[in-house]
Design brief:
homodimer; alpha+beta; elongated
Chain lengths: 89, 89
């Protein structure tokens, strides 16, 4: 099953980067989910940091972003899903 | 020379997606540059849309985000660079 990391505007990019790199090392990929500009920004920063962690292990991290409409208590929101895939260099 | 698209918080993601897909079809890759959460969000949305355009041509679009410190009139800001690379499926 695909691991999912939910990222918010208040998430610490370094902490998310550590988790991202750890799951990618184990499973090859991880999905980051973010709703709103602040959360998407933190998720992208996390992946930029995780890339620097993984590159020293010969793993190139690539992102595949896509949309998903989700139903929340405040109505329908569009979530950005970013599948982070580790590729051996 | 690598083509660069500068994305702002006010950029129209569909227009940026059309430009992204066009450059990737011609050159194989394009760099999206964004400063600030709003701009990063628009850039990621643009790539998610461009992915849907390119997938029908058998091109998988992947993002490689990284940081770059830039000197602006208001001081040093951290730019997010996202290299969007088209990979034949």
């Amino acid at each position: 099953m695909k691991e999912i990391l939910k990222v918010s505007a208040k998430s610490d990019p370094k902490a998310v980067a550590v988790a991202t790199a750890s799951v990618v090392r184990q499973c090859g990929e991880v999905e980051l989910q973010a709703i709103g500009a602040g959360a998407v920004n933190q998720a992208v920063k996390s992946v930029a940091i995780a890339r620097s962690y993984l590159i020293s292990s010969g793993i190139e991290l690539m992102l595949k972003p896509s949309f998903l409409d989700v139903e929340l208590s405040e109505g329908t929101r569009t979530m950005i899903r970013m599948l982070a895939v580790g590729v051996a260099e």
